[in-house]
Design a protein that fits this description.
By secondary structure, the protein is mainly α. The chain has one domain (2-226). It has helices spanning 2-30, 38-57, 77-82, 88-117, 119-123, 127-140, 142-152, 157-177, 186-189, 195-198, 203-226. The longest helix is centred in the middle third of the chain and has 30 residues, at 88-117. It is globular and about 55 Å long. The mean pLDDT is 81.
């Protein structure tokens, strides 16, 4: 029931992310750094779309209002959700788990669509390469997802989005400003240093992202368990 309930609350958010993705692919292929090849521009642009999609699909803690509903304070259905005979950990894990599955589905669907629509990219990209890229993107974006899920436990939807975007933009700027090596740069592992170009899996980046995701999700669990609603 919790999974179905979560789906009803996130389906319109998922449709919005898919529509935004189609626009983003068009923008990435027609604008950007002219020094890059069309394939590099596309992958570099998609790397931004991945974490933006993760932020928009991230678990909303145990808040249960549907997407795009502006409310002050807690939505009335939150109290109904809290009254269910399940732990807060399960409520959070189910909602966050559903959002992460939707994020992976978006990444897989977008990569498959790009592979089918662009013959030039398909000619130099094997199916196995595309599957590896989906795996790497899903793992590397998990830290951004967990950050947004953490902020959702104590912020309203709009502040969750803006807080996540600002924090991720700042971290991405720091990674470029301090010239973090590509082998440790999670953002570049989804873009210009991805497995599509290096043909090697960025194990260090994936490990960093999974470690950060675990810490952030653990913090989200603690906030939900200790918070008085």
């Amino acid at each position: 029931m919790l999974w179905y309930k979560g789906w009803l609350e996130t389906r319109f958010r998922l449709l919005f992310v898919l529509g935004f993705g189609a626009f983003f692919v068009f923008l990435a292929t027609h604008t950007g750094n002219s020094a890059l090849t069309p394939g590099q521009r596309l992958v570099n642009g998609l790397s931004t779309y991945w974490w933006a999609a993760a932020v928009m699909l991230a678990g909303a803690g145990i808040k249960t209002q549907a997407a795009f509903q502006a409310t002050k304070g807690l939505h009335g259905s939150v109290y109904f959700t809290l009254s269910l005979p399940v732990s807060r950990l399960r409520l959070l894990a189910t909602r966050a788990g559903l959002g992460m599955l939707e994020t992976v589905a978006v990444i897989a669907g977008a990569v498959s669509t790009v592979w089918l629509v662009f013959p030039g990219l398909r000619a130099g990209l094997a199916v196995w390469d595309a599957l590896e890229y989906v795996l790497v993107a899903a793992i590397c974006v998990s830290a951004c997802y967990s950050l947004s899920a953490l902020l959702a436990t104590f912020l309203d939807d709009m502040w969750q989005f803006w807080g996540s975007f600002i924090a991720i933009f700042f971290l991405r700027w720091l990674s470029e400003a301090f010239r973090v090596p590509p082998s440790l740069n999670v953002f570049r592992a989804m873009g210009l240093s991805s497995t599509l170009f290096t043909h090697t899996l960025p194990w260090a980046c994936m490990g960093i992202s999974l470690g950060a995701a675990a810490i952030l999700f653990f913090a989200a669990v603690k906030v939900v368990q200790l918070r008085e609603y």
